[in-house]
Amino acid sequence: MEGTHMEVAEKYFTDTYRQHNPNAATVRKALAAFFSKFMKLQPISDTIKAPVVAILAEGNLVTISFA
Predict the structure, then answer these.
(1) DSSP alpha helices (H): ranges in 1-67?
(2) Is CB count within 10 Å lower at the N or C end of the chain?
(3) Rounded to an integer, what distance in angstroms lies between the CA atom of residue 43 and that of residue 33?
(4) Burial class (CB within 10 angstroms; exposed 0-12, middle 13-18, buried 19+) of 57
(5) Are the CB atoms for 18 and 27 separated by under 8 Å?
(6) Residue from 51, 49, 44, 46 nearest 65 by CA
(7) What is the DSSP code (8-state) at residue 24?
(8) What is the pLDDT of residue 44?
(9) How far is CA 23 from CA 19, 26, 50, 52, 59, in A?
(10) pLDDT value for 2
(11) What's the predicted TM-score (pTM) here?
């Protein structure tokens, strides 16, 4: 997400992806449209720049929280 390469969203988000931002729709296709509006396309980095606060996983469900 940091690089805004929404063309790879299908690889990392299921089509039943739930967005909890009240200003954005909740499916994967809408996620790409929402973030593409205000995030500038950047090279994909080898590391995440935003500090990771927590990673939670249960079965095949994973969430990552960034600072």
Answers:
(1) 9-12, 28-38
(2) C
(3) 19
(4) exposed
(5) no
(6) 51
(7) S
(8) 77
(9) 9, 10, 22, 23, 29
(10) 67
(11) 0.48
Span 3-55, pLDDT tens digits: 677 777 788 778 787 777 788 777 777 777 787 777 777 787 788 788 899 99
* Residue whose C-alpha is closest to residue 12's, from 22, 1, 2: 1
pLDDT in tens, 10-20: 887 787 877 77
> H or E stretch including 3?
none
Q: Which residues of 14-29 are buried (b: 16+ CB within 10 A; e: fewer)?
A: eeeeebeeeeeeebbe
Q: Could you identify the residue written with the tokens 């469900």?
A: 61
